[in-house]
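Risk register update: the risk of archive-format incompatibility is retired. Evidence:
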Amino acid sequence: MKKLLDEISAVVEKAFEDCGYDSTYGKVTVSNRPDLCEYQCNGAMACAKEAHKAPFVIADEIAAKLSCNDMFAKVESVKPGFLNMDISDKFLSERINLMGKEEKFGLEENNNPKTIVIDYGGPNVAKPLHIGHLRPAIIGESIKRILRYTGNRVYGDIHIGDWGLPIGLLITELRRRKPDLCYFDDNYTGEYPEEAPFTLADLEEMYPFASAYSKEHDDYHQEAMEVTSKMQQGNRAYRALLDHILRLSFADLKINYGNLNVDFDLWLGESNAQPYIPDMIKDLEERKIAEISDGALVVNVAEEGDKREMPPCLIRKSDGAALYATTDIGTIMMRVHDQNPDEIIYVVDKRQELHFTQVFRVVRKAGYVKDDMKLVHIGFGTMNGKDGKPFKTRDGGVMRLSNLLNEVEDEMYNKIVNNHPVDDDEEARRNAKIVGLAALKYGDLSNQATKDYIFDIEKFTSFEGNTGPYLLYSIVRIKSILNKYAAAGKSAEGKVILPSGSKAEKDLMLMLAGFTAMIENAAAEYAPHKVCAYIYELANTFNHFYHETNIMAEEDEMKQASYILLLKLTKEVLETSIDLLGFEAPERM
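Archived output:
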């Protein structure tokens, strides 16, 4: 189903062509003066010089040509040469009825679907998720859902940090606390236990201690470095401990990401890319893509036209240690081998821009990716407190993500019980969890990802304004009307949406008709905030229609059924949209 704006443009372009002008001048846009018209075309202004005619003469010709087309209720030529258009109620209602019957509301089939990998997790093993993990999780999840909805094959990859010094620190501390474990017996040749000799709580306590201790004790730090190196080189005991750490961490991460309504298709980490790295380093050296500089192996990635200094990409340090860039290059090679993607997207803090520029240039220079493969870094801004600085706990620490979720849920619960008497406290708690997650996610996603934003729990949990709770309340309001209609023994089955009888009704139809264009645009620009902007405007338009229209009091059954079908479609579009953002609406609030 062609997008509405494209359909209107096609008709206007044909009119320009029939009048002897280039059809490209017939491009139509949504009016920037909705008080004057719904759509506009300024092509006559651009066409005038080429046609050697006054713009208003051309506009008059096109308006005369279009005036007999049933698509339009009004076509006006306005000096000095603008075309103002309103589409007809009949044409719009027919389109809305078709939209309600079409899969995905008439979204055009993707004739060129892509295979895409999105890297959007990035937690480290044995460490609890904190608020720094919030933005990549919910932005990446939404982009994944939007790209899938538009017909692509998308793999979400958590990309766990499971290979560096943190693992060495944990094993070193474990050896100090439990030296008698079989993992530390060099003569042990048996199978290692299936049960881990520690709990996740042990790991979460050990890591910060070991990290702080190593910074004050060089011998401890050196020991951890040696353990890390042995683990990376395949030490059987240390690999067995790594497996224990990963199993415990994965189980906990799945619960915590599940609470965010975030899931991954690939639970892989830095360690999974390690088999590719030795051959990759050898290849870079042999083909002289990499060179030795001050004992380290580097790839020069500076290009003509760089507007800032571009340092070489460090592949191997002088002591032989690999780095994040090395692992990320190996991970790209692994993804090319396993998924053969057309595109890899990284949803990572914007402060990592230089790192990804270097990595992308290395893999292109080495020919490790196809020339037409897209490598994209979506660098997101920080979530700040009201002081404009990165959000912290009251005592200045980094807040655990679970604590943030609990804080938002509690705030939402208090607002729910204070606004309305609660008969069922358990339902109120359930709703607080659903609405609280919507408040948090919408509060984040409604901002452009690259920008910093202020976390304001009072604003985010409000039922008024541009917030998640306001959107859910609008959906619940529609559900309530539909339920009342059904409870009255009525059904809109077999009925149709009639041509609009008011401006508020037509405005709602026009907003619905813009859904597919919005989704295509949001997918093309990896922009969940465009979905947020659309559904906020749709909710506002619905609420205006609701207040202007006596839906349940309407005596004309055909007209009432038309209203009900329009509300049903509005609900479905809103529910589809919030699912793309990663949250849902309760049945009642």
